[in-house]
Amino acid sequence: MKMSYMGGIKMKILEQNYQETNYLQSYEKSLKLWPTSFSSYFVETSQGKTHIIESGNKLAHPLVLLHGAKMSSTMWYSNILKWSKHFRIMCIDILGDKNKSLPKKGFTDRLSYALWLKAVLHTLEINSTNIVGLSYGALHTVNFLTFFPEKVNKAVIMSPAATYIPFHPLFFSYASGMMNSREGVEKFLGWIFENRYTVHPYIQEQLIAGMMWNNSMKNETLTEQGFPYIFTNQELAEIQTPMLLMLGENEVMYNPIEAFKCAENSSPNLTVELVKDVGHLMSMENPQYINDRILEFINK
What we know:
The protein is α/β, with parallel strands linked by helices. The protein has a domain of 207 residues: Rossmann fold (3-Layer(aba) Sandwich), CATH 3.40.50. The protein is globular, with a radius of gyration of 19 Å. The termini are far apart. Pfam families: Abhydrolase_1.
């Protein structure tokens, strides 16, 4: 009985090692889509090692990119070329999510997430920066603004996860269906894109490999004080930082018109825009418009 138990543990470890190797190989394959030079490195914090992809001029103003859940920093491949001509760009793999970052311990609440990002910026010797976040990354951006607004010059939040209004119940159904299921991932992508856009095979295979990778430190149980989170009217009203909120008219994770109305007058320096012909992953669906619009907002 003991031998059988030990054998089961050994098999589980071997399986997890295979899943991790498969994911990391798919991540590196996705990086072949990166259209400009980059460096890849880790930043040490008390929470763990944070992986960063950096492109652009080191002497230029910094721009931090925060990716959507399970997508990792490789999702920015269609945006990086244009933006890297203007900024020193740090694409941060959010600790605790499926990517190359290596967590040491879990997050306890929203403040712990903000402290982690602050520590990363401190190590990079960045006193203040512009931030662009999409979905989960947009949620992190707003969360960071509520705790450390002095660290952010301007922020762009695309398709924020929750933040202003709750997810549609269908989201949880599709999201749970992705776990350990290639078919579930394909159904999820079909749901958010309908027939407007086809994900590059490298990115899709990376997403599938991530959903097949069973790692408790990268499948955090979100706490009540953690994410997803709907910010209070007071929290939003206190954000003075200039922000651009971009919502896709074909968003399916929640009603974009309702989100628009909830957000419209929530923060004093917020611009809200409904983007035509795109859904949740708008930076991938229409990179030409997104690239130009974000540059325009940050540079004005």
